[in-house]
Amino acid sequence: MVLSSTDTNPPIEYVPNFLTPSQALELHNHCETLAWRQNTIKIFGKTMPVPRLECMYGDEGCDYLYSKSVLLQPIAWTPELQQLRLHIESSTGYRFHIVLCNRYRDGRDSNGWHADNEKSMGESPAIASITLGQKRKFQMRQGKKGKPVDIWLKHGSLLVMHPGCQESWVHQLPKTTRPVEERINLTFRPHINGKICNEETDLK
Ligand SMILES: O=C(O)CCC(=O)C(=O)O
Ligand SMILES: [Fe+2]
């Protein structure tokens, strides 16, 4: 499977059953053991906890700063995350150098409207996002005034935001007052300092 269509609006692709149930279960168990951290973010000079837990794995030298205040430094790939990276790369045809992991403990945890347009990802990045655990509503909107499009991201699914998406669309994972279980999200991203990997040996 190579996902390459970018002519949809929004320019995304959603694959609900990307992982088999046993792959999703194994990966979910693995992700619970990752090095989760409560980071803080500075907004209008005020320091606040990020409303979710985070950690980042990836190639050496691929530091990632977002919202001009949260600096994530990559931990070396675990074998499980490396295997998933190769699976996503061969399915999408895109290259990824880091995976930013989010853990939404309950409905109070969230991720506000934003575009992932940090320069460290290079021009027009593609982003691939895996969901494990609780199904949550993900929203996308074109610019500030667009009507939000809702996408329910389910356990074991893959969402690909194609190149061009971050330039004109923003997205969020809103809070919910419904009682919900925990959700883990893995977003694979390129990085300008990423290793140039060798197709012959790395994609086998
Ligand atoms: O949790 C999600 O599905 C979205 C995460 C996200 O947008 C991000 O980490 O930039
Ligand atoms: Fe994002």
Automatic annotation (TrEMBL):
Gene3D superfamilies tied to this protein: Alpha-ketoglutarate-dependent dioxygenase AlkB-like
Molecular-function annotations in GO: dioxygenase activity
GO biological process: DNA alkylation repair
Domain called Fe2OG dioxygenase: residue spans: 95-192
InterPro entries assigned: AlkB-like, AlkB-like_sf, ALKBH3, Oxoglu/Fe-dep_dioxygenase_dom
PANTHER family: ALPHA-KETOGLUTARATE-DEPENDENT DIOXYGENASE ALKB HOMOLOG 3 (PTHR31212:SF4)
Protein name: Alkylated DNA repair protein
Species, as recorded: Dulcicalothrix desertica PCC 7102
